[in-house]
Input
Amino acid sequence: MKYIIDSEVCEKHGVSLETVLYLLALFLGKPIGQKTVQEAWHLGAIMAHDTDSNGNITTVSLEKHGAEIVHDIISDSTYTPTGEDRYLKLAEQLIELYPKGKKEGTAYMWRDSKSVIPKRLETLANKLEKTTGETFTDEQAINATKAYVASFNGNYTYMQLLKYFISKRNIIDGVTEETSQLLSYIENEGQVDTNPRDWVDRVI
Output
């Protein structure tokens, strides 16, 4: 089920956006309480600053990863395929090149889903075409992914999730920058160092 909330509509009704989000949680039978806060904290989405005498988190701030989660979910929820079966087929091939299950020590799936990965590929291809007039081929994407996964020799500690391998937003000094290891591997085919240690600060 999809819910679209327009902040301007909230204002017209004289209700703040945060109040509507709170009421929506109650409406769905999923009230925002300590369970929700703890889940966000365990995801690394928020930083806890204060707790009460019972150990409940009372003051928090949003972490960079939390902002990424919100952005990704909103973006993926509003994504509408352009009818390009190419990206779905390509996504299925890239997914098969990645490990199954969750990344060790995290709650995140290596492969994500067949709704998220095609969107990432199409968005990246469209941006590349707009800036360079060219885009990558399926063969290039497949070969790049094979090379990237193989470079870790079975030790995937520092390997990025598939969706972040395709594209990832990083906030540096308050500025959002988008990186793509997929494009890096394509552009540097045959020249990539097989030691992945340089990417430690970019993973998850």
The longest helix spans residues 116-132. The chain has two domains: 7-65, 81-202. Residues 7-65 form one domain. DSSP finds nine helices and four strands in the chain.
